[in-house]
């Protein structure tokens, strides 16, 4: 029998993934492959802790994480969109840069590169009335405010992408930039928007990671940016799909923790989330079709 | 023609660097002892294992004329190159902090027979022959863990206690085994929940995971958790603060981190071992081989200080001292796996 606590645990594990995966959706829909999500998460996590440390207010930390996420994404955008470099190479560079930069800055601020001092976190939100409902309250109430922000952002992202002119244009430059261009859509501008939005979202995900733990620890993103990317593909580049995939990954992770100590070797149990990812990617979803122009720089003259 | 000139240049540079290295080596030996410290995953500032090693060197530096440098490997491959760089750089003693150095330090020690090496938590199971210029600093963690396990069993109200380990390896199994045995000897009705954070070095560096594991144990009814997991333990502490449970800290004294929440600390005197190794080189009494630190050598233990004295009664302390004496006398033999 699986206990109820596993559901709130899944939600907590899924939150940073969802925010980063949403970022991935925006970036890739505009035509830019964004494996820099990992580095943006890490920079966001670090910025949140440092800003909270100096201001004493975790919300200032959240704001700083968003700004630093935006700046990190800007690097990726300049390199890939303006200078038309390979998206994967730029992404790897951003990730490595984030790994080194956070450790160095951590050393400058805290005197060691491994981890920060303890900071305040965001106090959990108890939803009035809902918290008193027996099962529902336990599942939905009492999470970090960023969990609710993430749920709201999933809805907002869906609306923005599929119900607004902005969303249509963003998707158009990812599918067929030349056609979009001839219709008067500013391809470069839309791609910058896509990448920068991904920076804001993944930065927020980073803030959740570090503020929920009250510490920054080197490399604390720990591959979550890549898992988010897998979730985005699994969710077929849609906000709901990506969020659903993240919830599944979060659930498998929580299940893995719950199953430990039950006689099955931990090493095997720890493979479950990844094994499931591969099985799911290979079978259930069928063919995942990326935006047609993803990863290809837009050269106005050449076409 | 040009090609040959380039090769000549490279050769010259290499030759010069080798020569200058040798020279620096000799100069160093005349005035001060040079000690290099290479940290484990978790790194300096983990408030536990690595910091203990750092304290040992700092203490030695205050007493002996020595120059020391610290090195934090970024990735696995850096471990060997870090050791090698220090050995080549004219260091008299190079210390690797953590079992992950076992293979690398063994290899490097053979290549630099004039340099002294020390490895904290050296893994004997690797089955490598220990060169004479290498000392393996081992701890009987199971003995200290036994005592905190007994304490947890005395203190638990829910009759359920937890253990959160870092990487799932024999070294951490020693903590688990000692803890379990301590709980069992003190009160066989108490249940022990066990979780490990992972199967790679990352498991010592993942407070996000640590917090979730601890939350799941608290939710299953545990009220005290012993963590042996590096910085992952910081997450365990946060879960305890949130849930009102208690944590037993590991390696260094962490009682001050959260008074009222940290029940005690199972300290492993890595600082003493490191200090003594440096002292032995200073006094030219360095000996290679295995050195073990247990309760008898005062190398492991539990801490009662101003931050946790309200949590532990005199009756409990008396009982712990009784158990400790039995282990030292050999009446109780604590299993290590």
* CATH 2nd-level architecture of chain A: Orthogonal Bundle
CATH superfamily of the largest domain in chain B: Response regulator
Mean pLDDT of chain B: 87
What's the gyration radius of chain A in Å?
19 Å
CATH domain fold name of chain A: ABC transporter involved in vitamin B12 uptake, BtuC
**What's the tally of helices of chain B?**
10
Chain-averaged pLDDT of chain A: 90
CATH class of the largest domain in chain B: Alpha Beta
Residue stretches of chain A low in confidence (pLDDT < 50, at least 5 long) are none
The total count of strands of chain A amounts to: 0
- Fraction of helical residues of chain A: 55-70%
* CATH homologous superfamily descriptor of chain A: ABC transporter involved in vitamin B12 uptake, BtuC
Euclidean distance between termini CA atoms of chain B = 66 Å
Q: Based on CA inertia axes, which overall geometry of chain B fits?
A: globular
β-strand amount of chain A? under 5%
Question: What's the end-to-end separation of chain A, in Å?
Answer: 60 Å
Biggest interface between chains: A-B, 31 and 32 residues
Strand content of chain B: 15-25%
**Number of domains as seen in the coordinates of chain A:** 1
State the CATH topology of the largest domain in chain B: Rossmann fold
